[in-house]
Design brief:
The structure is a homodimer of 385-residue chains. In chain A, the strands form 3 sheets. In chain A, strands 2-8-7-6-5-3-4 form a 7-stranded mixed β-sheet, with helices on both faces. A 3-stranded antiparallel β-sheet of chain A has the order 9-10-12. The first copy, chain A, has a two-stranded parallel ribbon with strand order 1-11. By secondary structure, chain A is α/β, with parallel strands linked by helices. Helices cover 40% and strands 14% of the residues of chain A. The first copy, chain A, folds into 2 domains: 246 residues, Aspartate Aminotransferase, domain 2 (3-Layer(aba) Sandwich), CATH 3.40.640.10; 99 residues, Alpha-Beta Complex (Aspartate Aminotransferase, domain 1). The termini of chain A are far apart. In chain A, helix 9 links the parallel strand 6 and strand 7. The first copy, chain A, contains 16 helices and 12 strands. Chains A and B meet through helix 1, helix 3, helix 4, helix 5 and helix 6 of A and helix 1, helix 3, helix 4, helix 5 and helix 6 of B.
Chain lengths: 385, 385
Amino acid sequence: MAEILEKELHRLERMERSVKGFLNLNPIQRGGILTPEAKKAVEEWADGYSICDFCDGVLESIKKPPIDEFVHKTLPKFIESDEVRLTHGAREAKFMVMHAVCKPDSTIVVDSNAHYSTHVAAERNKLHIVEVENNSYPEYRVDVGRYADKIEEVKEKTGKLPSLALITFPDGNYGNLPDVKRVASICSEYDVPLLVNAAYAIGRMPVSLRDIGADFVVGSGHKSMASSGPIGILGVMGDLSDSVFRKSREYRNKEVEMLGCGPRGLPLITLMASFPTVYKRVQRWGVEVENARFFIEKMEGIDGIRQLGIKPTEHDLNFLETNVFYEISKKHKKGRFFLYRELKKRNIIGVKPGLTRNFKLSTYGFNKDELKKIIDAFKEIAMLK
Amino acid sequence: MAEILEKELHRLERMERSVKGFLNLNPIQRGGILTPEAKKAVEEWADGYSICDFCDGVLESIKKPPIDEFVHKTLPKFIESDEVRLTHGAREAKFMVMHAVCKPDSTIVVDSNAHYSTHVAAERNKLHIVEVENNSYPEYRVDVGRYADKIEEVKEKTGKLPSLALITFPDGNYGNLPDVKRVASICSEYDVPLLVNAAYAIGRMPVSLRDIGADFVVGSGHKSMASSGPIGILGVMGDLSDSVFRKSREYRNKEVEMLGCGPRGLPLITLMASFPTVYKRVQRWGVEVENARFFIEKMEGIDGIRQLGIKPTEHDLNFLETNVFYEISKKHKKGRFFLYRELKKRNIIGVKPGLTRNFKLSTYGFNKDELKKIIDAFKEIAMLK
């Protein structure tokens, strides 16, 4: 052990979260804000492996706290899947599915709005990717009918069907909600398993894997289920669960893809403690969409601001083209950082420092007064022109 | 979304940790108890992705909170390695190393005291395992010199050197600390990379990867670094970091084995906030070993109790053979559950319900008064005979 200086240790003491009390527009932050119930649970369960106090060898079979019921009964009802497993996050769930069902060097078909972690998970599994295009600017709508062409293309080129198809619902840039049922129906026809990345859907809006007709769905606790990171869930239908949930040859109660046990700790406690609230908020999704539309309408009332992606928006996550701010940045003494600073002055954060031309944001969980405050701030800043 | 009953939701409310205030002998619990500093930090940083407030695309490069310095400067000094990465736990770090450096169907050499998750991580990577034996009852000492024979054996049988060797330091049953430097020197001679599983060492006792001479070391935050689960660290030396830390072809700032970013959340905050205390407690490791020896001496003073594993013990985790309790269980009206109940009556938990013949426990972090209280409890219970 080499010596570590006092000042270095000192920087780890009293780490404060400087954005407390700010209105945070960052889409990755809106759905993960803890409920008061989860905050209370955090105090109780913060110690290391506390969740394993009464474990008999399998995390998801623990009765106290009630993980067994939560994983095997409550969550399967919530997302209407045959089975659910806990993961370290949506990306880890995607990796797990690919690892279990796709042979290395096989090809998967993915929408072109997929999250970068879909690509990295595929690369880690040594898979090739064929993309289903979107219709580009300004809508970026994925042409879901093209899944059939791409499956045919892979079959022709490699002599084999794709080992998996994946669709992002919604994507993390435009908040576009593709017609996922149609993708599922195409994939069923070809007998290609389909994974739905619902990291921005599960916990915000109702999602039913059964209704969609896909084989896998992944969700994110820290993104959309009012949980501390990192935690995710994986829903699986039917026969494919055999390969994803296969048991170790040597350790008969341990699942191989889970490495025995997955998220053995505090994030799971927050996922559980927040769940009653999450269950209820999903039923009020319509209000969130209304709020997002109200917000977009007012923002588009500012000259030089336009929503990209499918219109009218169907999701709280939206992408704005903001030429007005780009124009200001060219002359402002703070340059392209002016927008970040001007927003911060008004207690608003979440637009990435340096962006002025376009950016994404989320209105999830804001009430009308907060939305109005945010709209007014943008209006004021636009007047700097 | 199917309907979820009120009573089912209700069970997720006010989940209380019933073992509060108990003396907990469970080895997986002793080293993960949060420091007051970490408890404070948890309140501040519990929201979902809060750690990513000021992220530029790579978790481990975040400056606020000071993750960048912690991962790239502080931790490499702490475990004396060239590089450190954060993982979801020790098992995930083992999987990551195997995935990066071992081809499927290759063979690895592992000590026979290895944790089950080493086997499951190897199975997930489709690796074969050849074990280096221990000398069995009562010492279970791994015969480290046999690493050479086993490497030769693999070479002869498969035509190739093992793709990796692994040693558990200490193991999680007996707390045996094998001569890991000798293993490293053997592995260097054959040019076989060596991974040291130090989940029960890093954060408890000083560990230097450089001094050991191995290539990889993994540690566990929730097991031994006063952190909320799940979190671990991976230390890497020299050239092998190229394969483990390789960047995505498409996303040049994302590491493939990390799936972009690893433990993006609250457990990392606790690891950092507890670190100043952990750094200091490691320097008092001698006191912990003294306490463990004191405890074992007193326990062996009870007729029918004996420590297994290497003696005198060199670690807080120890394995006891307790024939006295087995004898009592045969006649006691609660049968084999009597010991768990008798201990619980005395505010002591952590011995698995139903065990009487032998069990493991840890004395980590207990003061002398607490140790005496525990010893007295066992003495009293032994008198039931």
